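Support reply, case 0932

Customer input (verbatim):
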Amino acid sequence: MVNRSSSQYKTTFFPKFLSRKRSPFLFTLLILFAFAFSIFVFLFYTRNSFDAEEAQPFWFKEPQSEQKVDQLVQIPDKQLWDAPFSYGLHPCIKPTARYKASRDSNHYITVRSNGGLNQMRTGIADMVAVARIMNATLVIPQLDKRSFWHDSSIFSDIFDELHFIETLRRDVQIVEELPKLLEKSPRARKHFTSWSSVGYYEEMTQLWKEYQVIHVAKSDSRLANNDLPLDVQRLRCRALYQALRFAPPIESLGKKLVERLRSSGGRYIALHLRYEKDMLSFTGCTYGLTDQESEELRIMRESTSHWKVKKINSTEQREAGFCPLTPKEVGIFLQALGYPPSTLIYIAAGDIYGGNIHLSELSSRFPNIVFKETLATREELMPFANHASQTAALDYIISIESDVFVPSHSGNMARAVEGHRRFLGHHKTISPDRKGLVEIFDMLETGRLEESSLSPLVQRMHKNRQGAPRKRKGPLPGIKGRGRFRTEEPFYENPYPECICTPKRHIE
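Our regenerated output:
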């Protein structure tokens, strides 16, 4: 027998083997070797295909089986309902050590607030800060009575006027009305430029040389979102989150309705279902509507003089994510996130366009739907009848107190509620990615995707859209001039970091 080294054995094994008589043992060994080698080759090449699959856009990746989808839909309650981890962040709206109390002033600013409830609220908060910058006395603002809702409410019908004045007494002087001597005096009537800086308003103080009263025709978005002094930003937060408390009758009924929701279901979703006639007409969104309904919305848009854009391509609007989700789309969305059919949902909205015909596409999936009209008695709601801003305030209170808030469109209320919930502790707010969802919904509509395969796609898409702490987003890249301000995340949608601090800044 010849003694072979290991290296010599490796190079001469196969020729020698072939020249000798094949034994059963060696034959078995060869088969095992070939099988192991084939497994290695298979794993090597399929690894590349797995990597390629991960690189595909996530909405094209379908689960392996319906059983897997069922397991993903069974989301733990903690994941469905708990607020995101807040890292110890907390509200911080006290003035800094450099802040000085307001000074006496014989100059006055009068304001006509414009828009719906939340557009007026944020606008009033801006005007408080503007009055401080210009060292002026603020007259209690007039509310918009000419908007779509034609609400005749005055300030004290919606807000606690005395609380408003008292809470801000160190910041700015506020009076109920102009002194009698100034009622007929000349006034500077101004449309202050949107998203303006402190420097702009300091220049406007030149008007005091000729006038004692400045009348501001519009109040919304009059201050910049960013690059303002810290004390100005915190004053805006004090005005909005502390001073602008709702009138006692609204606060009282709002708390009662929250208690009734808690007693009937424990936890609830507040759904701002912005599927109302004015919104659909303004945005030109007609997906899922009949020809007759679409024409009705077109006529309304054409006849509303202050809506500047008249001709709108509904398909382009929807594909760009500018349309509110339909009731059916909201139902599919919530179901895909894992919420069970028994979930209690409060609809924070006015009249849903098309009534039960369209609403049934949501209630067929989630039958436990309630409105303020079903929670409150007729007698309780009677004082607020025909006052849209007051009933919207009830919706606001219930939305702030909800376990989960979901807006179907990013309008003024959606932004204000999200910002307030962030301020209070980053309560769970799920912001639908409407553009991404439209792609998925269209795949469902055309049969390219089964609804049973939807859940993991939607959950992954919205993993980071649930109200977790983050700094406010700046303007979109590539946009120059004043147009960039329009692309910024509004201050009141996310008042972090100026009004929300880390534990290290607790002393401020």
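We compared this against your earlier run and they match. Two observations from our side: The mean pLDDT is 87. The CA atoms of residues 130 and 150 lie 27 Å apart. Please reopen the case if you see a mismatch on your end.
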